[in-house]
Amino acid sequence: MTESSTTEGESLGTLTETSSVRIREPRSYLPGLAIANFGIYIALLTPVLVSMAFKVQHITASPEEATGSLGLVLGVGALFALVANPLIGRLSDRTTSRFGMRRPWIIGGSFVGFLAFVVIGTATSVWVVLVAWCLVQTAMNGVLAATNATLPDQVPAERRGKISGIIGLTTPLGILGGNFLVSFLSDDVSRFVVPAAIGVALAVLFALILKDRVLAQKPASRMTAAQFLGSFVFNPRKHPDFGWTWLTKFLVMFGYAGIATFLPFYLIEKFRLSEQDAITTILLANLASMVAMMVSSPIGGILSDKIGKRRPFVAIAGVVMVVGLVALAVAPSVPLVILAQAVIGFGAGSFFSVDLALATQVLPNPDDTAKDLGVLNIANALPQSIAPAIAPAIIAFGATTAIGGYTTYYLFGALVALAGAVLVYRIKGVK
């Protein structure tokens, strides 16, 4: 981190309750965190993986324009997520509300995000969709930053792998739940508003039952410009393990989240599916992925706690995801697309279960927990910006070869994810 100092740490230091003295998290915490993450991912990932592609297709004139517009909307929106996550995380670290440090951001962000989802559903212009999606990404990633920051707040280090493993299941469940809803919704408005309403309700419920930390002493000074800019950067030489963790997460997430955006177009182009058939196929693929995750996620988290190692699980998970991405790229039929998604899900389950636990063990400053987790979450958001931005060029290049446009794109994602699986062993402070 560029701005870390003992003075600020002391000003933030007195809390009504700290994770260092916890033996176990509050009983209501785990189910509350699980339903909150489930809701956030239903609201945020359903558009990324399904609804936004069809929304853009409905308001553009050609498939080529739809591909470019989808890349623009998701790419620019992800940049806002990149900024919002660490910034709001840092602000929540300094929040002195009597209602807690995290709760105000969870509730406020949820309602702002919901209103922006309504705008997207009713929009008839790509530019309106773009602006509203940027607002969604800002608000909902703020909610995610504050929610994730409660893990080190509430859970002792030796139990974080198990908790992370259970929470890791909420990602595929959220994706599956969103796909399931969309398969029964025929118009753009309901495809955005219904998942958003569920997300808001569950996030607010978590905020209400959360035994949130409260700062007993206000920060000694206002946030300076250097501290503001420091919300988005860190010093990899001073904190190399944190830097390698960031890079590993970025590369693996590029292969997982960044690539998934264009699956609807891939299915329509390669297999000549209708819109409804594509939605049904994505639902089945995500169901297969979720089942695989349900197997690998808790096993990965529990075993990593028991063995006391994180890196092998992250590395193996990355390699499994690479195998699935290659299979997806060359799949000759729809059933094999579904099988490939199951393989990707199996790897992703183990990755998500251990990655967050590993990350909490390399944080540079315990007084900046949410800020540092927010910086790590940039590695989640940035691939969702870079991948759609470069996708049209890669797909266009691939289309001029015998390989094919989308096949080339998925193979590229597999290579990037493989690099992440290898580089996890550059992290030296965690086994």
Could you characterize what this model shows?
With 431 residues, the chain is mainly α. The protein has one domain (6-426): Growth Hormone, Chain: A (Up-down Bundle), CATH 1.20.1250.20. It contains 17 helices and no strands. It has helices spanning 6-11, 29-58, 63-93, 103-122, 126-148, 150-154, 160-168, 170-183, 188-209, 225-230, 240-260, 263-271, 275-307, 311-330, 334-360, 369-399, 405-423. The radius of gyration is 21 Å and the shape is globular. The two termini are 23 Å apart. The chain crosses the membrane at residues 29-54, 66-84, 105-124, 130-151, 163-186, 192-210, 246-267, 279-301, 313-331, 337-360, 381-403, 409-427. InterPro entries: MFS, MFS_dom, MFS_trans_sf. It is found in: Cell membrane. It comes from Luethyella okanaganae.
In short:
Helices cover 76% and strands 0% of the residues. It has 431 residues and is an all-alpha fold. It has a single domain, classed as MFS general substrate transporter like domains (Growth Hormone, Chain: A), CATH 1.20.1250.20.
Order of helices and strands: HHHHHHHHHHHHHHHHH
CATH topology: Growth Hormone, Chain: A
Q: Cα distance, first to last residue?
A: 23 Å
Number of helices: 17
**Which shape, going by the Cα principal axes?**
globular
Indicate the CATH class: Mainly Alpha
Total count of domains: 1
Structural class: mainly alpha
Unreliable residue runs: 1-21
In helices, the fraction of residues equals: over 70%
Named at the architecture level, the CATH assignment is: Up-down Bundle
Largest sheet: none
Give the tally of β-strands.
Answer: 0
Gyration radius, rounded: 21 Å
CATH superfamily annotation? MFS general substrate transporter like domains
User: What fraction of the residues are assigned to beta strands by DSSP?
Assistant: under 5%
pLDDT averaged residue by residue: 81
